[in-house]
Specification:
This protein is an all-alpha fold and 445 residues long. It has 21 helices and no strands. Helix 5 runs antiparallel to helix 10 and helix 14 runs antiparallel to helix 21. The N terminus is likely disordered.
Length: 445
């Protein structure tokens, strides 16, 4: 008869891989998150013709999401710290999907009021999405040891590129075949289904029904904050003066401002890039939807590669500071190549250069890994909210600045210089301001 204790012991030594399924869910949810942000970039040319919008008006419409998204970051981070990631994130998915779907409904309103109603819906999508990335950061910090965190954060962050690869052609087809309103019905419906799935399959590490003791010990021994989501921790009061300490810390401010610069590139590709292809490069809406996916493929590859390289440097004994900064600096240097598009005429050469730029942006987009490495344990959600507030201020400024530049100059040349300059400024932040990358310890009041 087989020894039961021996079987039990063997079972404990067998390491499960539940954390990878959690990462898969983060990837899926964040893919939909970015796809819902990008709906307007695909449908905007059709809407612009129908509603008679000029570039500045379109720029403000693009920015509507980011106004509310930024305003919701710190409240969203507080909700995550107070009530836990699973519940808050589920409500976030459901609400942003509802307001995405509602954009298709208001599309039936008279033209005189449609733009205003659409603007309000975009605001609500932004506010509802606010807890998503701080929630991603909390789950990665809880589920992954330090030496795996860069790859994990890079994978969920690379979903922004995969969203374009997967959904830009679909949304372009829907716009072409069924009208721009159909995009919002389809995307909103998908999100409502995903919110229900999230509630069923997501758990904290210590209460997950399928995790083995070996995996839990591996995560905790490697620096994973496995107790982060427990109620006793999630409902602990936020230390007084925490926000002031975050903003007064040089390392954190360097990271925050650097994220603003990096996210400027993100919002160029999310908002104006398809318009650039149609209006500056003469492509059809359908062709632009498919072509926009090519730089996104490069960005996805670069995003995953940046995380893998960074974690590989940690495992080889390099300091966390060197391992995180090296891909960021190299990636941002590659991103500046987009300025070369001002000097070429071939459509496919433009696409190739933009693909290189987006690849570099992917390699350098390690901000969320850095946030998981540096955020104080007591306020991981709040710190992520501040980080995302700074980053997504670019969602307000980038569409509007580019709108004015395009209207005044009649071309995108100055806009590409503006975006490339932000990549250089991100390098300055990480090399001259951030200093050593380490977890910040809050001082008790």
């Amino acid at each position: 008869m087989e020894d039961v204790s021996a079987v039990s012991s063997a079972g404990e030594r067998t390491r499960s891989r539940v954390r990878y399924f959690v990462l898969f869910m983060l990837f899926v949810v964040t893919t939909l998150n970015y796809a819902d942000r990008a709906t307007l970039s695909i449908t905007s040319s059709s809407m612009q013709k129908e509603l008679g919008l000029d570039p500045v008006q379109l720029g403000y419409l693009f920015s509507a999401f980011a106004w509310a998204y930024v305003a919701g970051q710190i409240p969203g981070g507080w909700l995550l710290d107070r009530f836990g990631t699973k519940t808050v994130y589920a409500w976030s998915i459901a609400l942003w999907s509802f307001f995405t779907l509602l954009q298709g409904v208001v599309g039936a309103l008279p033209v005189a009021v449609l733009a205003g109603a659409f603007f309000l819906c975009r605001l609500m999508v932004g506010f509802a999405e606010a807890p998503s990335f701080p929630g991603n950061s909390r789950l990665v910090a809880a589920w992954f040891p330090t030496a795996e965190r860069g790859t994990a954060a890079a994978i969920f962050n690379s979903s922004q590129y995969f969203a374009t690869v997967l959904f830009a052609p679909l949304m372009a087809y829907l716009t072409h075949a069924h009208g721009w309103r159909s995009v919002y019905f389809v995307m909103g419906g998908l999100g409502l289904v995903l919110a229900a799935v999230w509630l069923v399959v997501i758990h904290e590490p210590k209460s997950h029904p399928r995790i083995s003791r070996a995996e839990l010990e591996h995560i905790e021994r490697g620096g994973g904050l496995v107790s982060l989501e427990q109620k006793a921790v999630a409902k602990a009061p936020i230390p007084r003066g925490a926000l002031k300490q975050l903003l007064a810390n040089r390392m954190m401010m360097g990271i925050y401002v650097g994220q603003y610069c990096i996210t400027t590139l993100t919002y160029f590709f999310l908002t104006w890039f398809p318009v650039y292809l149609v209006q500056e490069r003469g492509m059809s809406i359908l062709k632009a939807g498919f072509v926009a996916s090519l730089p996104a493929v490069a960005g996805f590859i670069g995003g995953v590669l940046g995380g893998v390289v960074s974690d590989g440097l940690v495992r080889r004994g390099h300091s966390l500071t060197f391992a995180r900064k090296t891909p960021i600096v190299i990636g941002m240097l590659m991103s500046t190549s987009m300025v070369v598009c001002n000097y070429v005429d071939s459509q496919w050469l433009v696409v190739a250069i933009m693909s290189l730029s987006f690849f570099g942006k992917g390699v350098g987009a390690l901000g969320w890994a850095v946030m998981s490495d540096t955020a104080p344990k007591q306020v991981a959600g709040l710190s992520g909210g501040v980080f995302n507030t700074f980053g997504n201020l670019a969602g307000i400024t980038t569409p509007i600045v580019i709108g004015y530049l395009v209207k005044e100059s009649g071309s995108f040349a100055a806009a590409l210089v503006f975006v490339g300059a932000n990549a250089l400024l991100a390098i300055v932040c990480y090399l001259l301001v951030v200093g050593e990358i380490r977890r910040l310890e809050l001082k008790q009041a």
